[in-house]
Amino acid sequence: MADFNPKIVAFVCNWCTYAGADLTGTSRMKYAPQVSIVRFPCTGRIDFMLLLKAFAGGADGIIVSGCHPNDCHYSSGNFHARRRWVVFRGLMDFLGIDVRRVQFSWVSAAEGAKWAQLVNETTDRIRRLGPFADYQRLRGLGVG
Amino acid sequence: MARIGVFICHCGENISATVDVVKVVAEAARIPGVAHSVEYKYMCSDPGQQLVKNAIKEKNLTGVVVAACSPRMHEPTFRRACAEAGLNPFLCEMANIREHCSWVHEKGEATTQKALDIVRTLVAKVKKNKALEPIKVPVTKTALVLGGGIAGIQAALDIANSGHKVILVEKAPSIGGHMSQLSETFPTLDCSQCILTPRMVEVAQHANITLYSYSELESLDGFIGNFKARIRRKARGLDEKLCTGCGLCMQKCPTRKIPSEFDAGLGLRPAIYVPFPQAVPNKPVIDREHCTYYRTGKCRLCEKVCPTQAIRFGQEDEIVEAEVGAVVVATGFDIKHGDFFPEYGYGKHQDVIDGLQFERLASASGPTLGEIRRPSDGKVPETVVFIACAGSRDPAKGIEYCSKICCMYTAKHAMLYRHKVHHGKPYVFYMDIRAGGKMYEEFVRRAMEEDGVQYVRGRVSRVYERNGRLVVKGVDTLLGARPLEIEADLVVLATAGVANAGAEELAQKLHVSYDAHKFYAEAHPKLRPVETNTAGIFLAGACQAPKDIPESVAQASGAAAKVGALFSQSELVREPLIAVVDRQAPPVYSSCVGCFLCQSACPYQAIEKEEFRGRDGQVVKTVAKVNPGLCQGCGTCVAFCRTKSIDIQGFSHAQVHAEVLALLERGERDG
User: Fold this and answer.
1) Digit-coded pLDDT (tens) for B101-117
2) Is residue B85 assigned to a domain?
3) Which among B388, B171, B156 has a CA at the least distance from the CA of B261?
4) I need a labelling partner for B365 at 20 to 30 A (CA). Which of B50, B115, B347, B400 fits?
């Protein structure tokens, strides 16, 4: 499993985590290259069905990250995201997807180091979990 | 058919040192829809931008992906370049291969592969981008200022002096607020009225200011630049145009023993009154609750003596409608009254008073004409105990916060007392002294060292009466928690500053948020301190949190500057990255089913209802509609929508879908 090269999609908000990941870059901190970012205005924008689409499309792991509670640029979007995540975990269980494949986190625009650590830890965990092999089955369920 | 141009930047060596740019260019050229793929050393430089512009024209590009630094850095640069070349700026996207790739990964195949993944993602997105036009919203250049205390006065004057119309609404019969009640102000000890009343007069005389005193906001609708306010002008009981403010009615009024609000209950006023002689406007109000005529149907003495026949007993409240572009909320604060402090005997003993009452005792215009005399028997108190933090910083009382002004005004009170009663003994019980501010610490030191105010660090447990004097039972924590009893003639409580009684109701009318203590919430605690989360509504003064006069004035000027910036243009131009609701031809009209989940989720009240009517005029469908003036583009509604009828421009379903699938490489196969 050690040489398995996972595909991890990160859904992040524009104001905190995207800027935090920019800071990781300007600070020249190194992290694993298996994570790619999709930018959203706010984590509140994220339709969690998109996470299923990503799994059906072959993602091995997913990161969802936005502003810390009470720091949301739009005041409450991150709380909506958190509630959806709580509900979504139940759905993941039901579908038989290991909930450890999704990492929910808050990374602020000042936490460049936290972003690097988050990516590395998530990459390590997904490596240990191995490839998400059930994606064709998900598409059979009509998700893809 | 899409014709996308991909422009890959070396950023000197910032990108090319770890990413094989040449390979990315070659691979990008093979992505379906890419018509042009080039590299350049510095894409953001003039020749780099020219490269983009020329390619747009020569290759007829329908979209542009610039693979370089973060969009937070240069997205505006390249969007402008595209616009200059005739391509809609919203058809340009940045692929962040520097901050998110070359700077954070080692040189190698995986890094180049990731850069290519990022480019492919953004190419997939830009194919789904739509040409967008900036949103233009007209601006009504009139500001509504709520509250005529020092913050509201300052904001109104600043806005009016920058050439815009202002409507100032004050709840009380006169403007002036709490500041007009104060005796002298820290840390300079200049008389409050002397510095305030000229400003009040300026407000009344300013050609750009319409003053509605004794009025309240009834409702506010609309959005930034386009609010509609309904203002209730409460019936004064007289014709303001005829009244000259001569005051004869007040002299003759037979009902004279009503506790004066302005004197914090220490003085008396008649039933027809102005709050204080320097009131603006200087026109009386009939207090219908106490007026003999309203109570018994007889009297009308004021009507008989009025030389201009201005009294109107039958007058009713009037509703005024006004169109305004911005609102400054400056409704101020209150202090804790009543039986909130049973342990201190407040409300039980006449000689236990609050800070505002002491202000009136010390004020030259107050009920004692500035002599410190205790309310019970009018004697000059020999010993006065001041208790700071009465309620504040006390979780047990439900007020965890510091009221901020009490340390300073308590020092001032003790000082004023000594200035007026030279042999008097002032004691101050305090928890900590918070004297952060220009000349503040020096001021407190002066009270201690020059005016001999005895500061005792400790809490007071009880105040009770013994042989006609008040016993203050406390503890001195700097002397080994030694219990302490002081016999006092007067006890002054620096009671906590709290939000106004009507703060919550007003917040709901304005759609602004507030904290657990009903103080109004600023948009950002550090960087947007005068804005609320509702665009076009600003905050000034103590309605946001307890604060002193200099801070209130500074915030008011800040709010006025924000209003000035808003009014400096006839149209608001905003990025069109906002939500839109699906519209179709009749009879479908929209895929929206009208559940209005989006409305409950929207933090900006930007979702409205739109009704469609058939030929017979009957409503056939009610669906959601986004107000482009209010929507901030967070997209929370998008994720809520059950029918995917609401979408957000710039981050649409189609766009993010395409991105995710492209990232997973199976995107093209799955469509």
Assistant:
1) 999 999 999 999 999 99
2) yes
3) B171
4) B347
Give ipTM to 2 decimals.
0.94
Say if CB B524 and CB B517 are below 8 A apart.
Answer: no
Number of domains in chain B: 4
Give which of A71, A74, A84, A108 to mutate to test B binding, by max B Cβ within 10 Å.
A74
What is the share, in percent, of chain A residues with pLDDT greater than 70? 96
B125 belongs to a structural domain: yes
Identity of the residue numbered B84 = E
Does the beta-carbon distance from A36 to B118 stay under 8 Å? yes
Closest CA to B19 of B111, B104, B117, B100: B111
Q: Can you give the pTM of this predicted structure?
A: 0.74
- Asked which of B254, B284, B316 is the last residue of a domain, the reply is B316
Residues B380 and B308 in one domain: no
Please indicate if any CB of chain A lies within 8 Å of the CB of B603: yes
Based on the fold, state whether residues B437 and B342 are members of the same structural domain: yes
Chain A residue at shortest CA distance from B114:
A33
Q: B636 vs A45: CB contact, 8 Å cut-off?
A: yes
- Over residues B27-32, mean pLDDT: 94
d(CA B153, CA B144) in angstroms, rounded, equals 12
Query: Hey, what's the torsion of the CAs at B364, B366, B372, B373, to 10 degrees?
Result: 150
Confidence of residue B669 (pLDDT cuts 50, 70, 90): very low
Task: Assign B337 a pLDDT band (cuts: 50, 70, 90).
Answer: confident
B298 and B365 inside one domain: no
Indicate yes or no: CB of B651 within 8 angstroms of CB of A80.
no
Q: Output the domain CATH number for residue B16.
A: 3.40.50
Give the residue-averaged pLDDT of B187-193: 94
Q: What residues of chain B, 66 to 125, have a C-beta less than 8 Å from chain A?
A: 70-73, 96, 98-101, 103-106, 110-111, 113-114, 117-118, 121
Does one domain contain both B482 and B352?
yes
Note whether residue B154 is domain-resident: no
Interface of A with B in 110-129 (CB under 8 A): 116
Provide the residue range defining the domain that includes B631.
Answer: 579-648
Give B300-316 pLDDT, tens digit per residue. Answer: 999 999 999 999 999 99
| Same domain assignment for residues B254 and B380 | no
- The answer to whether position B507 is within a domain reads no
> Are B277 and B339 within one domain?
no
Residue A85's domain is classified under what CATH number? 3.40.50
Across the interface, whether the CB atoms of A9 and B664 are under 8 A apart is answered: yes
Q: How far is CA B171 from the centre of its chain?
A: 18
User: Which residues of B are less than 8 Å from A28 in CB distance?
Assistant: 103-104
Q: Give the pLDDT confidence of B578-598 residue by residue, as tens digits.
A: 999 999 998 899 999 999 999
Average pLDDT, chain B: 93
Q: Read off the pLDDT of residues B411-451 as tens digits, 9 standing for 90 and up.
A: 999 999 999 999 999 999 999 999 999 999 999 999 999 99
Task: In whole angstroms, give the CA distance from residue B13 to residue B520.
Answer: 50
Query: Which residue in B595, B586, B585 sits closest to B622, CA to CA?
Result: B595
**Residue B297 and residue B377 in one domain:** no
A59 is in which domain, residue-wise? 8-140
Name the residue facing B99 among A21, A46, A58 (closest C-beta). Answer: A21
Segment A2-25 shows an average pLDDT of 90
Task: Report the chain B residue with the minimal C-alpha distance to residue A71.
Answer: B524
- In angstroms, the CA B57 to CA B404 distance is 62
Cβ-nearest to B670 among A41, A57, A73: A57
Tell me which residue of B374, B389, B334, B340 sits closest to B181, measured CA to CA. B334
**Phi then psi dihedrals of residue B553, to 5 deg:** -65, -45
Percentage, residues of chain B above pLDDT 70: 99
Cα distance between residue B226 and residue B379, in whole Å: 57
pLDDT score recorded for residue A144: 58
The string of pLDDT tens digits covering residues B510-543 is 888 888 899 998 987 888 899 987 889 999 999 9
**Of B82, B102, B133, which residue is a domain's last?**
B133
Query: Do B27 and B96 fall into the same domain?
Result: yes
The neighbouring-strand residues paired with B384 are B426, B490
Question: How many structural domains does chain A have?
Answer: 1
